[in-house]
Automatic annotation (TrEMBL):
Record's protein name: Endonuclease Q, cleaves 5' to damaged DNA bases / ATP-dependent DNA helicase UvrD/PcrA-like protein
Phylogenetic placement of the source organism: unclassified sequences, metagenomes, ecological metagenomes
A Pfam family hit: PHP_C
Signal peptide start-end: none
One GO molecular-function entry: endonuclease activity
Alphabetically ordered keywords of this record: ATP-binding, Endonuclease, Helicase, Hydrolase, Nuclease, Nucleotide-binding
Length: 226
């Protein structure tokens, strides 16, 4: 898994429009990643936008750190390493001495001819998102597949429209009215990338959290005062 920020570190890709498409394991997960077009909904218009970048507005992405092989590491020893740390340890697990499994970020570092954070002028942007059911799950502290999360999810969709619009465009005030102050804060943080990330490594999915437990309780407490 990668995103445009990672891919743009390789100058050989400068002339290529970067698109993003979901691997859909179930109907519920169709469209988790997507492309944004400002053009007619037709094959010719879409292909022209991809070729020329005119009418192609960017992509919607998951945080790549969620991937099972983003960082290097050794799952048995619970060791997760950045590429620089892997080089420091000579590709060996600092706990048991076995070779670590090298991840996607290590490959990016090896191929890159630009520093992290490089932005190509004129290149379409991208949005990093967390699916709305997962955000709701964190705000109410019950499982993402629970009845409560499912009910709140469809209630919010009925009030505010489709999920991508809610995650990227809907006013925070409207989100608070349809959901809760905690949901408003959660979506605000996702929009700004202000989340806690533990990158995946050696076959283990990464973990993305919006709140620390103390923060969550503080926000709830503040809103109870008004």
């Amino acid at each position: 898994s990668s995103d445009p920020r990672m891919n743009r570190r390789l100058s050989q890709l400068d002339g290529i429009t970067l698109i993003s498409n979901s691997d859909a394991h179930s109907p519920r997960k169709i469209g988790r990643e997507a492309n944004i077009f400002d053009t007619d909904v037709s094959y010719n218009s879409i292909m022209e936008a991809i070729r020329t970048k005119k009418g192609f507005s960017g992509t919607i992405e998951f945080f790549p750190e969620e991937g099972k092989y983003h960082y290097d590491g050794h799952r048995v020893c619970r060791v997760s390493l950045s590429p620089k740390e892997t080089i420091k340890y000579d590709h060996l697990c600092p706990v048991c001495g076995k070779r670590v499994t090298v991840g996607v970020m290590h490959r990016v570092e090896k191929l890159a001819d630009r520093e992290d954070g490089f932005g190509l002028s004129g290149s379409p942007g991208f949005h990093s998102i967390i699916p709305l059911p997962e955000i709701i799950s964190e705000t109410v502290k019950v499982g993402v597949n629970s009845k409560r999360v499912n009910n709140e999810y469809f209630s919010i969709l009925e009030s505010l429209g489709n999920e991508f619009r809610i995650l990227m465009e809907t006013s925070l005030e409207d989100i608070e009215v349809a959901g809760s102050p905690l949901l408003r804060e959660a979506i605000s943080r996702v929009r700004s990338g202000d989340v806690y990330i533990a990158p995946g490594f050696d076959g283990e999915f990464g973990k993305i959290r919006i709140f620390e437990k103390v923060e969550r309780e503080e926000i709830k407490g503040q809103n109870m005062l008004f």
